[in-house]
Inverse folding.
């Protein structure tokens, strides 16, 4: 008879207890790493055997236990995960203040558990392997060439390669480029693949003797494949690598821990990785100088408005004269134009000039965005919608004024100024699925003399963007992003602009009203990554943000604001040793629930092993508190 210590797999099974195991017994032969089914809280769930002991050696302690041991239900796979994988899951869980079972659930899809196959871990005792990190900070085309060469080298050594990407769109795009010539040995996994296909693929993996190239999202990181030597974390800067739901895993950190534990080589791929990543690898990081064939232009809209004599209070230029000149020239020469607009809708804010109220969502307190058609104010947080009126809903005044521009307003102005031009639009209000987006790009490619107006949604179609042969790219509105009080916002803007700049063949134009943001724009137009990095790293050092401080964000939500305020103030006192700051969420109320944050700053490199007291306090908090370790945003 054997006593098994198992890790239950699932979310919210355990509350912030990374080291907790549960014990069961069995009379069957079983090994560490086996996948079993066990009774847990009136249902049967999957679990991984972490360790086992012979009953004879611990019989006395079992008899004294204040609980009754239960038998496992059955063994699903005798050799499902290597011990090193389980140790990695424990360390990832400790870092993120969650259970190993939650980590395993994040990195092994349910179909893998259902179709579990026994995998022999040939690399378990291989002392020749060692962890190392390589920065692949080249433009995408150069990175892909590097990956192809690396894959050939690894195949020759009998090793497989795993490429992790943030979303399905990137996977499909990369697979077409990378797998040429090795289609037979390329495996693609993502959420759109059917269960039947996954089962067939798992069987192929188990039987295939030849090394494989596996291209997948982070959900497949713990794939039980015996000879993966290299993991490539592509598009490292993508915010999609940070989970938005419990356990809020940072895939970048998880992959690093996983590679260290399993002695794999980690390659970080991105033209410009996150600031923290560059800082931690400065010695081996080369800043490429990005060249572009396009003319680089920055337009000061305020200055243009003054020069044109538009001094009246209500005068407002949405599209610069130079941008319209480019569109007119493109129309005459049958060239394509891409216009980037940061906001959906017609106008993001409507105010009453009498009572000075902002028309806001009654459930979220967020400003309602004007959409026309259908002539409605819509909340982009909870999708609450009311019919727009000509009178203020608060004081009934007629003097309503819209502020800012959205994609609908830009499109309206362009159609008025260029009646014969073909305009196409991509944003989430009109594009509801992938096929609709592909249809828009198909039209854009077929008609050379056309203008595509889009929000960030355009980046979900990387292959289509690259194949469009876009002559001119103009950034119509981006200034509003600078108003977000978040320490990563400059980095986000920089990444957006770099992506847009690479698309332009003849002209890349940024129009702005923020003269103080010219240094950032100039770094983009000059392709000067090093200058931007130096400015950003200095700013973060002065303000105490990563990579100089480690952040922990604790969030409380309540329908009763006074109750929430009391609870957050009490928690602040409980954590006063670490000097937390309390602040309202950027959108302080969503779906009738108020939101407040507490922010802790810890010396970098101490979490979690050298902050035992803080770790214990956070572990003991009730589950209703959302604890985000190393948050992507402070908003």
């Amino acid at each position: 008879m054997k006593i098994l210590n198992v890790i239950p797999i699932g979310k919210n099974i355990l509350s912030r207890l990374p080291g907790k195991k549960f014990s069961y017994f069995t009379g069957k032969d079983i090994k560490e790493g086996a996948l079993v089914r066990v009774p847990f809280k009136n249902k049967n769930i999957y679990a991984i055997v972490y360790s086992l002991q012979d009953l004879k050696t611990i019989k006395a302690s079992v008899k004294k236990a204040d609980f009754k041991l239960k038998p496992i239900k059955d063994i699903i796979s005798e050799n499902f995960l290597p011990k090193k994988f389980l140790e990695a899951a424990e360390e990832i869980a400790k870092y993120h203040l969650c259970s190993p079972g939650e980590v395993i659930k994040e990195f092994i899809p349910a179909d893998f558990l259902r179709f579990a196959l026994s995998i022999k871990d040939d690399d378990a005792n291989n002392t020749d392997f060692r962890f190392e990190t390589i920065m692949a900070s080249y433009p995408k085309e150069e990175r892909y060439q590097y990956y192809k060469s690396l894959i050939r080298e690894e195949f020759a050594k009998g090793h497989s390669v795993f490429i992790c990407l943030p979303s399905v769109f990137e996977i499909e795009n990369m697979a077409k480029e990378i797998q040429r010539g090795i289609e037979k040995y390329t495996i693609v996994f993502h959420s759109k693949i059917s269960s039947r296909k996954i089962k067939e693929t798992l069987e192929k993996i188990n039987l295939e003797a030849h090394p494989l190239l596996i291209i997948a999202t982070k959900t497949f990181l713990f794939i039980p494949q015996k000879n993966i030597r290299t993991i490539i974390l592509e598009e490292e800067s993508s915010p999609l690598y940070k989970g938005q739901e419990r356990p809020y895993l940072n895939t970048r950190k998880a992959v690093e821990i996983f590679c260290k534990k399993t002695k794999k080589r980690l390659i970080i791929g991105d033209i410009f990785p996150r600031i923290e990543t560059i800082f931690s690898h400065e010695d081996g990081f080369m800043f490429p100088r990005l060249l572009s064939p396009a003319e680089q232009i920055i337009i000061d809209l305020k200055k243009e408005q003054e020069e044109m004599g538009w001094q009246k209070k209500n005068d407002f230029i949405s599209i610069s004269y130079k941008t319209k000149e480019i569109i007119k020239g493109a129309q005459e020469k049958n060239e394509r134009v891409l216009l980037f607009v940061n906001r959906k809708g017609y106008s993001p804010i409507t105010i009453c000039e009498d009572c000075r109220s902002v028309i806001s969502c009654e459930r979220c307190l967020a400003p309602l965005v004007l959409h026309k058609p259908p002539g409605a104010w819509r909340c982009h947080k909870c999708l609450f919608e009311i019919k727009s009126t000509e009178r203020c809903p608060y004081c009934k005044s007629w003097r309503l004024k819209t502020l800012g521009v959205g994609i609908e307003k830009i499109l309206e102005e362009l159609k008025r100024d260029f009646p014969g031009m073909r305009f196409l639009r991509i944003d989430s209000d009109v594009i509801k699925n992938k096929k609709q987006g592909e249809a828009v790009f198909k039209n854009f490619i077929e008609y050379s003399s056309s203008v595509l107006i889009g929000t960030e949604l355009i980046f979900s179609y990387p292959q289509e963007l690259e194949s469009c042969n876009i002559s001119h790219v103009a950034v119509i509105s981006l200034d509003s992003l600078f108003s977000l009080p978040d320490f990563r916002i400059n980095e986000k803007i920089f990444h957006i602009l770099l992506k847009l700049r690479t698309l332009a063949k003849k002209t890349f134009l940024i129009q702005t009203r923020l003269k103080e943001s010219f240094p950032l724009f100039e770094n983009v137009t000059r392709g000067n990554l090093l200058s931007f990095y130096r400015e950003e790293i200095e700013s973060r050092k002065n303000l105490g943000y990563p990579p100089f401080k480690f952040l922990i964000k604790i969030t409380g939500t309540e329908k009763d604001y006074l109750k929430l305020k009391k609870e957050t103030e009490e928690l602040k006192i409980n954590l006063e040793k670490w000097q937390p700051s309390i602040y309202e969420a950027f959108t302080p109320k969503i779906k009738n629930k108020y939101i407040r944050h507490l922010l802790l700053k810890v010396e970098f490199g101490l979490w979690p092993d050298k902050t035992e007291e803080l770790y214990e306090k956070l572990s003991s908090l009730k589950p209703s508190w959302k604890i985000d370790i190393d948050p992507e945003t402070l908003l």
Summary: Residues 549-629 form a domain with the Alpha-Beta Plaits fold (CATH 3.30.70.600). The two ends are 53 Å apart (CA to CA). The mean pLDDT is 88.
